[in-house]
Amino acid sequence: xxxxxxxxxxxxxxxxxxxxxxxxxxxxxxxxxxxxxxxxxxxxxxxxxxxxxxxxxxxxxxxxxxxxxxxxxxxxxxxxxxxxxxxxxxxxxxxxxxxxxxxxxxxxxxxxxxxxxxxxxxxxxxxxxxxxxxxxxxxxxxxxxxxxxxxxxxxxxxxxxxxxxxxxxxxxxxxxxxxxxxxxxxxxxxxxxxxxxxxxxxxxxxxxxxxxxxxxxxxxxxxxxxxxxxxxxxxxxxxxxxxxxxxxxxxxxxxxxxxxxxxxxxxx
Amino acid sequence: xxxxxxxxxxxxxxxxxxxxxxxxxxxxxxxxxxxxxxxxxxxxxxxxxxxxxxxxxxxxxxxxxxxxxxxxxxxxxxxxxxxxxxxxxxxxxxxxxxxxxxxxxxxxxxxxxxxxxxxxxxxxxxxxxxxxxxxxxxxxxxxxxxxxxxxxxxxxxxxxxxxxxxxxxxxxxxxxxxxxxxxxxxxxxxxxxxxxxxxxxxxxxxxxxxxxxxxxxxxxxxxxxxxxxxxxxxxxxxxxxxxxxxxxxxxxxxxxxxxxxxxxxxxxxxxxxxxxxxxxxxxx
Amino acid sequence: xxxxxxxxxxxxxxxxxxxxxxxxxxxxxxxxxxxxxxxxxxxxxxxxxxxxxxxxxxxxxxxxxxxxxxxxxxxxxxxxxxxxxxxxxxxxxxxxxxxxxxxxxxxxxxxxxxxxxxxxxxxxxxxxxxxxxxxxxxxxxxxxxxxxxxxxxxxxxxxxxxxxxxxxxxxxxxxxxxxxxxxxxxxxxxxxxxxxxxxxxxxxxxxxxxxxxxxxxxxxxxxxxxxxxxxxxxxxxxxxxxxxxxxxxxxxxxxxxxxxxxxxxxxxxxxxxxxxxxxxxxxxxxxxxxxxxxxxxxxxxxxxxxxxxxxxxxxxxxxxxxxxxxxxxxxxxxx
Lengths: 268, 284, 335
Known about the structure:
The complex is a heterotrimer.
Chain A: H1 5-11, E1 14-25, E2 28-40, E3 45-49, H2 56-64, E4 71-76, E5 79-80, E6 88-91, H3 103-107, H4 109-114, H5 118-131, H6 147-160, E7 165-169, H7 177-193, E8 197-201, H8 205-211, E9 214-218, E10 225-230, H9 242-245, H10 250-262
Helix pairs in contact in A: 5-6, 8-10
Chain B: H1 3-14, H2 22-58, H3 64-67, H4 73-81, H5 90-121, H6 123-138, H7 145-179, H8 183-191, H9 196-207, H10 209-233, H11 239-248, H12 252-281
Chain C: H1 2-17, H2 20-27, E1 33-39, H3 47-54, H4 57-60, E2 63-69, H5 73-81, E3 87-90, H6 92-100, E4 107-114, E5 119-123, E6 139-141, H7 148-159, E7 169-171, H8 179-184, E8 190-194, H9 197-203, E9 208-212, H10 213-217, E10 223-228, H11 229-234, H12 236-255, H13 258-265, H14 274-287, H15 298-310, H16 322-325, H17 328-334
Parallel strand pairs in C: 1-2, 1-3, 6-7, 6-8
Antiparallel strand pairs in C: 3-10, 4-10, 5-8, 5-9
């Protein structure tokens, strides 16, 4: 455990300090998050799971700087978040590729907005897209691609701006299960190899266990941190992929534990 | 070679094997027949109308003074092509109407989009102006023709009419389109730190192109109406003026010829916009 | 004896003094015939017609007149041709167009009303001796292209050596109701105005009378009563009674003072000042623009067609013969 708050700040990529968020409406206020304190180390791959409506996507929005907390503070590399940061890449639930732009033009969208040098951005985008198997489709329109391909293009878009921290908001939920498994495999590998700090929000427990080093469980609304589970799967000498991780013996134990923690009340 | 044979050859050339079962051939044949039948009925309707229009007045069943004949249109058109000191060529009249219409709907699109953007930018402005815009849109602008005439004078009132009649519906349509942009696309841009201006230029405007085209279609038609109505009131140039003048001197052939030219002009306008739409939608 | 005779004489005198309306009513045991009458526009030029209504001459003639105002020659003629009106008051040019057309229904003029154009040429400054050549190079508020006010004005110019196509700038696209406003706003250096607009502008000091277009051009019937062949055939008695009533009104109007005329017709011109009406009536009377008889002269029609031909709204080879256009029997029988 870090010796002081300052040390913690220096060594953490993302920190949430006692964060709370309320929504205000004509019918009253809703408390979405309450007393959330979390720290994510640089290069860490963490997953957040929780019942629907517990505010896990909201957490990502807070970290990305798109919304501000009502209480507490969010820090990136020790500095309070003032708005969207270049260090953070955010992959939303769906690809939201602009149908009027080609795949390549979509991929450089972030670089365009951030005013990065476009020649290098284009180069990076082409490399990323090619690496993800979309090299033949650079000048195609999104409607010509399948769901899985589009999500890969979205990943290229997210990584084109070279963020240090990548937020994934249930990025596979819009895909069918075969694609989901394959994509989770690929994306997990890509991000780990690039040594990014990754925070994955998912409702799929298996996905969380197989991809992340640590799983955080949120309670139902108002979302609070319920528990924190480091994941250690017997590795041998090989690094486990999300696919092969499911074969590890510890997988089912973790699954059972997390399932019970989630306290999903189907009859409720 | 029939269309099917050409298709088979093309597939073979591209290396694709496509089955051309007898059932498929039958289906193609039935499709073609159905298309031809529709065309035949369309032409028949046109032919019947033209024949009635020609025969009924000639047989004195209908007073020819009120209808003229289709056969009078071409000779009248040729005559009206000439320019005299009293009357300009019909092409000059048509050009005047077209120019006023184009200026009107172009101005409506540009100004309408600008106003819609302002309403999008400042939500407070929208909330304040909303009821006024709804009322202004609901009012029939043609009721204002005499007022425009008094305020703007003869020529400008036509342009003013052309603009006013389409402006409010344009603002409402385009603003609606802006509001209809998927908020997640906007959120996506925000995650990259986009400013409001960048969101407007990179997300909202390009995403609203289908709405802009729809608004353009509405505008073009409305502006033409506005121009014609304005010309009825006070003009000495234009197709609306010719229609009114022809009626006054009881030369219905002038009226019918002008109406025919008007129909051609408006059809061409719509064709132009459809072509534009196809070109734009190909890229989406 | 004397007493009874005096009573009887007094009674007869009293009977003779009963107003014409009730004597007419006594004579009319049959109900009044309804006539749908459409005038092209509301105008002081048609004063005798309004007199006939106010003084009860139509009722005396057994006619119940239902008047409407068409607001346009084409609209009024359309009403006549489509049988929404029985008798119409329009310019003869409309009847000429209809006769030249393929129309199955033909229209004939049977009774005159206006002897010539009733527009006045006005300017912004007083002029001691007006010459038409003063118009050269100037802007004039004209009238709708193809209309008789414009045609007559152009003819008046031509007669005085001014070419309307090249010597002047005619502003013809001002909407009729807006013309006075346009003049007041400063548009044009000269203009033509109908009465009582011209008189009102003069009284307000906004315009000065320069010439009467009608007086310059000469007699050429400007507006007349007309009906379809069919109506004339089936309702000859009604048409004759109409013509008689009009003749009576024309005589009365020619003899009355301007003030008396205005008293009879002021109700048809709400919103017009009394002074303007009197001034205008006086002018029209002096210019003899109100015909004193329903008879229309061939010379006048020939002059009218000349003006149409000069104005290029009628081809020279399409001139209509007098006897085809005018039914003279009704007017001749009335006088």
